[in-house]
Amino acid sequence: MDETIIYRAKRIVTMDRNLPFATHVAVREGRILAVGGADCAEPWGGGRHDDRFAGDVLLPGFVEGHAHMMAGAMWKFPYVGYHDRVDAEGKLWKGLTRIEDVIERLREAEAKMSASGAAPEAPLYAWGFDPIFLPTERLNRTHLDAVSTTRPIAVQHSNFHLLTANSPALALAGYSRETNVEGVAKGADGEPNGELQEMAAMFPLMRRIGVDFRSLSANPEAVANFGRIAVQTGTTTMTDLHAALPDEDVAALLAATGAADYPLRIVPMLGAAMMAPNEVAPMALKLKGRSTDRLRLGGVKLVLDGSIQGFTARLRWPGHLGGQPNGIWVIAPEQARALIRDLHAAHVQMHIHTNGDEASEIAIDAVEAAIAAHPWPDHRHTLQHGQLIDRAQFRRMKALGLCANLFANHIWYFGDMHVLKSIGPDRARRMDACRDCLDIGVPMAIHSDAPVTPLAPLGTAWCAVNRLTMSGACLGPEQRIGVAEALEAITLGAAYTLKLDHEIGSIEAGKIADFAVLAEDPLEVAPEALRDVKVKGVVSAGRVFLA
Questions:
Q1: Which one of 12, 54, 257, 535 is most buried, counting C-beta atoms within 10 A?
Q2: Which strands form 153-157's sheet, in the order they lie side by side?
Q3: Are 398 and 442 in contact (CB under 8 A)?
Q4: Rounded CA separation 167/149 (Å)
Q5: Which residues contact 461 (CB under 8 A, 6 or more apart)?
Q6: Which residues in the chain land under pLDDT 50?
Q7: DSSP-derived secondary structure letter, 533
Q8: How far is CA 51 from the centre of its chain?
Q9: Residues in contact with 334: Cβ distance below 8 Å, sequence separation at least 6, in sequence order
Q10: What's the pLDDT at 136?
Q11: HSE value, Cβ hemisphere, 13 Å, CA-based, for 204
Q12: Which stretches of 401-541 are DSSP H helices?
């Protein structure tokens, strides 16, 4: 029998209503044996006391229900975003607030490549760009041609639904004025202007320059950094919410997550967008059979629409504030209905990307039809992002057993721009409506969508609690939730949407010993200070990892 270790903490916030707070937790074989006071393990024969956390606060390990493993790989490419960001090594990358600064950083990166001996045709890939913040014309091929007319350049927007390319990159993808592909934007002269919107338009170029989403995720550096970021943020379970998962990638993930020094449980979701519809359910079920404690497989990610701030989301009337065309269907509605029906019939849990309210409506309709045809009482299909879901849609979701994982971080990072440029103040006030979601009774998580916004569950909770924008405005104060509710959304609530709440998400006997180690009690600090609570590390399945 493994040793029993009894950890003492200043306070343990358990998220278990039967014993909300404690001072000691006993761990054996990577699981929680008992919770309570110093004598909690006595009925089990006692154990060795460990006081290393005596001055700290323990919470359940945070659960990030919508992230992408490429968050661990992006920092090897130049960052050209608007917001200040910190990489996996702790380096600060200052945000760029003028298009001239973006061009200058790209010029510096291109000069560095040339000085290092890179071939003139070797591609330059950068990421994080946010055109909605810049007052000038949108970044286009002309701007990027000023950096290089020989080297292909691709600038990924922060939402990962769009990129902007220069002339050599467009030529590499075979795009010209004759191209008739939805998402290949063109200027008044009929020529591609460099902006590529959504997967069908982006992927031909991304594959040719060697930075498609699979290559960004399925590599040892990304997996290692994913775990490093998890420890720094108190996260013990994290999704990779759109993965290709061929056999060789699964084998590598099994090896990585099975290592004793790897701190994270990964929940990859099979991405359906690039697969034949009839292959998705069989592959998901096959993958489920390969699951381990540290690698949970079997779920599927569907992407219905695009990005609100990228103007590719599908919105109901009155549409986008500037009169832009009403977005792009990544999966056409009829195809989505058929795929949702087939996956539901096969008992495959779905996580469905719906940024716009029209996309949410299509998803809700499709799930309703699937349930009518093939009853499944505990499916827990989850609408991901769901940024414009309204009260009527939440009521339908409640009736159907749907969950919501809302993109609370958008309020801080993009809230001002949503008011001014994308959807206007009326809809922005109720976007990512956590209060309505909870009041109506829809199971809820909140998320970062890293690397779109930084992985930091306490920061995500701060966004949902305060709903402050970068200008200091409170966007929709009626949709604020309490600190305890936000903490549940990043622990037990997120675990529920992944069908893991019986194993993780709270500190109670029988569950896996996953803890976030904090310097302060989030319930005791001012709500405005929630994101500033220091994370000191994690306990992951009983193993201690310090930040």
A1: 12
A2: 124-129, 153-157, 162-165, 192-197, 184-186
A3: yes
A4: 7
A5: 408, 446, 483, 486, 487, 489, 490, 522, 530, 531
A6: none
A7: P
A8: 35
A9: none
A10: 87
A11: 17
A12: 409-417, 424-428, 434-440, 457-466, 483-489, 492-497
